[in-house]
């Protein structure tokens, strides 16, 4: 699928279901202590002394943006769907929400203390995930953190209805090892992985859920593009050890 076909299909689907999605998911985090634990860890990590901004990428109706704000994060939201952004602005009038795409963020390099993608990469065709992670790496300040929530598996499902509407939307389940590899390739360093079993609201349609915390290193890695030492560097003779 081309990038523009993916963006068009996803925008159209979420424009169609925005109010119903918002209503259904409004209090969903209340019943998910492990998900909240990862959001709390992310919030603590991004609240450095300079109090930089945290972007909720693919924010939908802004429920996660608002949750992060309640945890002290200087949070704002970005979403592909103008209708989702309308709903987010109405629901959380004190917060900032903008229309935009994770594939080409309208944000300056190194401008964010943190970025969350909470089930928003689940519609991204696998071949475009490197573009999204490269964008997240670009906009994070050195030392900035990211939190990713996604569905564990290895398949694409096409939805022709959802939230009481007809729609046309692809959803991807992704192996955690693949995401870990893509993050490393993008220059992001993985700090923690939580993989939990589906709860009763997710079973039987969805399987395990994954939450990855990563950060952008403060120093450029030496060696290969993934930070793995190159063969030559690995072979470099060690300096003799001192006895003192
Ligand atoms: C499953 S919803 C999750 C929404 C929100 N994060 C939440 O948990 O309530 C997926 C959201 O990601 C957005 N999205 C998908 N691809 C996007 C992209 N390339 N850029 C920005 N938003 C995107 C969709 O418009 C939709 O609102």
Short précis:
With 244 residues, this protein is an alpha/beta fold.
What does this entry look like structurally?
It is a single chain. This protein is α/β, with parallel strands linked by helices and 244 residues long. The chain has helices at residues 3-25, 33-46, 63-70, 82-91, 129-139, 176-185, 231-235; strands at residues 53-57, 74-79, 96-99, 112-118, 140-151, 155-162, 165-173, 189-196, 209-215. Strand 2, helix 4 (82-91) and strand 3 form a beta-alpha-beta unit. S-adenosylmethionine (SAM) binds at residues 10, 14, 25, 58-61, 63-64, 79-81, 84, 101-103, 118-120, 123. The site of S-adenosylmethionine has 20 residues, from helix 1 and helix 3.
The hetero compounds bound to this protein are: S-adenosylmethionine
Dominant shape: globular
Order of helices and strands: HHEHEHEEHEEEHEEH
Number of strands: 9
Calculate the mean pLDDT score and round it: 90
Strand content: 25-35%
* Total tally of structural domains: 1
Order the strands across the largest sheet as they lie in space.
3-2-1-4-5-9-8
Oligomeric state of the chains in view: single chain
The CATH class name reads Alpha Beta
Show unreliable segments: 224-244
């Amino acid at each position: 699928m081309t990038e523009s076909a993916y963006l068009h299909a996803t925008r159209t689907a979420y424009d169609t279901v925005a109010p119903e999605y918002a209503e259904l998911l409004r209090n969903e985090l209340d019943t998910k202590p492990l998900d909240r634990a990862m959001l709390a860890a992310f919030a603590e990590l991004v609240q450095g002394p300079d109090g930089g901004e945290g972007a909720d990428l693919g924010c939908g109706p802004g429920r996660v943006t608002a949750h992060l704000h309640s945890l002290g994060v200087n949070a704002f939201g970005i979403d592909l769907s103008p209708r989702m952004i309308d709903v987010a602005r109405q629901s959380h009038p004190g917060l900032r929400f903008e229309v935009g795409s994770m594939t080409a963020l309208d944000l300056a390099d190194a401008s964010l203390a943190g970025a969350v993608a909470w089930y928003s990469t689940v519609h991204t065709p696998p071949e475009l995930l490197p573009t999204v992670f490269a964008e997240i790496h670009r906009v994070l300040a050195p030392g900035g953190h990211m939190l990713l929530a996604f569905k564990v598996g290895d398949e694409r499902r096409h939805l022709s209805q959802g939230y009481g509407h007809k729609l046309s939307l692809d959803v991807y389940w992704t192996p955690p090892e693949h995401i870990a590899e893509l993050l490393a390739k993008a220059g992001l360093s993985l700090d923690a992985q939580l993989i939990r079993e589906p709860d009763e609201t997710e079973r039987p349609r969805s399987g395990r859920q994954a939450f990855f915390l990563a950060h952008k290193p403060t120093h450029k890695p030496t060696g290969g593009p993934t930070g793995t030492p190159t063969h030559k560097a690995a072979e470099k003779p060690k300096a003799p050890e001192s006895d003192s």
